[in-house]
Specification:
Blueprint lengths: L7 H11 L3 H12 L6 H19 L3 H15 L5 E2 L2 E2 H17 L16
Antiparallel strand pairs: 1-2
Helix pairs in contact: 1-2, 2-3, 3-4, 4-5
Length: about 120
Amino acid sequence: MLLDWTTGALAEGLSCYQKQEFFDAHEHWEAVWLKCDEPVKTFLQALIQVTAAFHHFKRGNLAGTASLLQRSLRRLDDFPAEYEGVAVEQLRAGIRVWLEALRLEDALLQLPIPLIRSTG
């Protein structure tokens, strides 16, 4: 299955994520996730966990943010640098920066949200 990030629910979710509307991004992507088979299902679940992590962050739940980012990273580690039109390695790097900052409780509000970037 090749995911199309230019139209439909995936594009809407990506737009929401970029505007830091994390709950809405989660909802759009979950609608696609429910219809997918493996390994795409696990990949989308990792992206959904990133959105959920930053939804928790916006609500001040740093432990929930870290937990979801760790779970997402574990899932993403099984995928190549680019997968289904997403720059996975760039996303993993951003998640690792956030996890380290959360561990150190260091300048979180100054960090950019990890980029989920379509490679298409």
